[in-house]
Specification:
The chain has 201 residues and is of the alpha+beta class. A hairpin with a 5-residue loop joins strand 4 and strand 5 (126-128). It has four helices and eight strands; from the N terminus they run H-H-E-E-E-H-E-E-H-E-E-E. Strands 3, 6, 7 and 8 form a four-stranded mixed β-sheet that branches. A two-stranded antiparallel ribbon has the order 1-2. Helix 1 packs across helix 2. Residues 191-201 have a biased composition (Pro residues). Residues 178-201 are annotated as: Disordered.
């Protein structure tokens, strides 16, 4: 579509991601172009080192789909920015042991999930925060409103607005323990692999 006007291409691309043109311009467009630039640099680097790129995956190593086998179950691991994920069963998100989502403007995976899962009106204003609300309901339903969970606990929620991109569930894995009196977190080997939740909401 390179011969079509830029406005048309941007409008069609925004439609693919089920977002407004303005949101695509400010968020998704930059990520897509960044990934293309990374891919070009990566391919150029491998060729400069004499690597045969005839059989090189289309995505750089940190952006590709990886096939995994966990016991009898086959999984495909997608490594992409949250906003660009589409048609996946589960997103696994790291979180603190208080299962407290950060504000949407923060630069973290949980914040990006909350931002992408928010329901917005035609002007882009947030009118519902379903991922955050479901996580609060899970904590309340499991008697955890006033205390942290054990490291490794997993809390499931719906995907919020990410359902429009084919995402079915989000698993919030408590893998970081806040350090009292600081803004820092501590991660221990005990948090891997995550433990299943006591019960679902």
């Amino acid at each position: 579509m390179r011969d079509r006007p830029a406005a048309d291409r941007r409008r069609l691309a925004a439609k693919v991601y089920s977002v407004s043109v303005e949101r695509f311009r400010k968020s998704h467009e930059e990520m897509v172009l960044g990934q293309i630039a990374e891919q070009i640099c990566w391919l150029a680097g491998t060729r400069a080192r004499g690597v045969d790129t005839s059989y090189v995956p289309l995505l750089a190593p940190h952006l590709q789909h990886r096939a995994l086998r966990v016991g009898p179950v086959s999984l495909t691991l997608h490594v992409h920015p949250v906003e660009l994920l589409r048609d996946v069963d589960v997103i696994v998100s790291p979180l603190n042991t208080h299962l407290s989502l950060p504000e949407m403007y923060k630069a973290s995976v949980p914040a990006a999930l909350r931002r992408a899962g928010a329901v917005r009106d035609a002007t882009g204003d947030v009118i519902a925060d379903p991922v955050h609300d479901e996580l609060l309901a899970w904590r309340s339903g499991n008697g955890l409103s006033g205390r942290p969970v054990l490291p490794g606990t997993v809390a499931p929620t719906g995907p919020g607005a990410l359902a429009a991109q084919g995402v079915r569930r989000i698993y919030h894995a408590a893998v970081t323990v806040p350090r009292p009196g600081t803004n820092d977190y501590h991660v221990t080997p005990r948090t891997s692999p995550p433990r299943p939740p006591a019960r679902s909401p």
